Amino acid sequence: MGASKIQITLLLVSYFIYLILGSLIFQALETDFERELKTSVYEMKAAFLRKLGDLTPEDVEQFVENLTHAVRRGIYPLGNATELDHDNWDFSNSFFFVGSIVSTIGYGTLSPKTAGGQIFCVIFALFGIPLNLIFLHRVGKTLSLLCEKLGKCLQSQGMKQKKTKFLTLLFFLVTGILIFLGLPSVVFHSTEGWTYNEGIYFAFITLSTVGFGDYVVGVQPGKQYCSYYRALVAIWILFGLAWIALLFNLLTRFLEDTEKKIAEDLHKMGKVGRENGRSLKRFQCASPSPNETLPLDTEEGSQKFVFETAEKDNREEKETSFLCEAVL
Amino acid sequence: MARDMAGSGLFDWRCSWTLSLLLAYLCYLLLGAAIFQLLEKQAEAQSRNQFQMEKLRFLENYTCLDQYALERFVQVIMEAWEKGVNPAGNSTNPSNWDFSNSFFFAGTVVTTIGYGNLSPSTEAGQIFCIFYALFGIPLNVVFLNHLGTGLRSHLATMDTWGHQPRHYQVVQTLGLALFLTVGTFLLLILPPMVFSHVEGWSYGEGFYFAFITLSTIGFGDYVVGTDPDKHYISVYRSLAAVWIILGLAWLALMLPLGPMVLHQFMHLWPLNKDPSSKKGITPEADGLSHTTKLPIAI
């Protein structure tokens, strides 16, 4: 028990050190280039302003093109040159950016423009994404432990097993939706000024790691945010990712078990011959079993939630299948 | 003998399930593309027209502008950009929500890449996007999962490999290594070169794009088929979507196979000629099985 606590703490510490180191390095690589780019864009704007009296349509078209190029490179040329003090790559933004890499959300509102930054980004992601998967795995374990405890509590009060499983699953779904999708939506409504629908849309797109970047927290220039706002959002994202990973895992297993059931039905109907039936049973033990799916979690992030089924740890299997059996 | 018969029957069944899964996956993408197109195209046309009007207005007034008008204009450009409207063109620019581009968008949603250079701006589009992703992402996982495990169990199983004669082992390992190398080249090395050439990026940028895409991070700073100054064939983005799916499937297949092939190489190494090495390839004996999860029938 003590050893696993040390393990968890070590994992947590190394995870955060990795993120902090990454943000410092990105900051070092990107700040200068961004500063130069911003300066040139502001100079272009100033030059345009000077010519305002005697412009031609071609000038305007050119100006629009220059501006478009600037916007594409992430420079939003509002205001004047004093805005240069506000860095896109200050530590807080850099840390958030690094988080968006390892979680594979990848908003894209900030991205490396220098060649060095891009190369470092690739290397950083190569190690950061598996590290994040391992970390989320732990968080997910904690979440399913909570559900299991609830189930045991209900069972000790004499409820039937199937009913407790169903209730636990329901609890998992409802509280998850409320905490990770509903509550943030309300919070964002007051802090960001989005509608409730937009808040839910943002929450879902973020937690499923799609991460369009059309809505991002804490970047609107006109608003005042409390200093720990982004840190709280980061914690929400962390737990929310684990919860949605479990949710997707349930859906995935449901789809896969449909496959198993079809195979079993075919076997029962005798369409598959006796010998094939024997090998089908072998095949079911061998291939679509949960053990098979671990390799996918080393893949660079895309099927991250499949890892939940993959542990050889029996207790782990019990935890996730505990939630699953109520579905089937 | 009986095993081979059983194996072929099982393979047929597996094949037909794979095909139906592939079909379902494609249908899901096509359906999503059509619905997104329906929901978003009109709104995009409206945004575009609005922006054109603003630009015209700016143009008409340019003799009596001031700094505030300029600021306002810059803001208008930024907003247009965020909606996916290209400010530097005119209204004859191809739509971002024609069928090929919508298909590409649907693909980026279910693979969780989510570039973001294009995203639903209507409320109906956003709500549909949530439900589309809710079912599309697990479907994507199941599909890639299935592809990976199916092909792996067909290609090689460690326990039968261990009992084969040596020359067979060598041939099989070399064949597998060749297969992996060629596939990696075709799907991971060659496409970035093609993209850099078509898009005018450096090879480094092309590789960066490919990595960010296949890891599903998907910043959206580099996206194929979005340069307003270039002319692309109409199915360009659909082909890119196909590449993405194949690339992801390849990663799902290759990442666990790679260590296994290495493992086989190590066993074939001349130093390892003692007969006990054949028996040594069992799940308990080599610690590697925990990480490679070989498809061993229990």
Automatic annotation (TrEMBL), chain A:
It is found in: Membrane. It comes from Phascolarctos cinereus. InterPro entries: 2pore_dom_K_chnl (IPR003280), 2pore_dom_K_chnl_TASK (IPR003092), K_chnl_dom (IPR013099). Signal peptide: none annotated. GO terms for molecular function: outward rectifier potassium channel activity; potassium ion leak channel activity. Residues 87-143, 178-256 form the Potassium channel domain. GO terms for cellular component: plasma membrane. This is Potassium channel subfamily K member 16-like. Belongs to the two pore domain potassium channel (TC 1.A.1.8) family. Keywords: Ion channel, Ion transport, Membrane, Potassium, Potassium channel, Potassium transport, Transmembrane, Transmembrane helix, Transport. GO terms for biological process: stabilization of membrane potential. It is a multi-pass membrane protein. The chain crosses the membrane at residues 6-29, 116-136, 166-188, 200-219, 231-251. Its main location: membrane. It comes from the Eukaryota.
Automatic annotation (TrEMBL), chain B:
This is 2P domain potassium channel Talk-1. Pfam families: Ion_trans_2 (PF07885). The gene is KCNK16. The keyword Zinc-finger does not apply. It catalyses: Cs(+)(in) = Cs(+)(out); Rb(+)(in) = Rb(+)(out); K(+)(in) = K(+)(out). It comes from the Eukaryota. It is found in: Cell membrane; Endoplasmic reticulum membrane; Mitochondrion inner membrane. Gene3D superfamilies: 1.10.287.70.
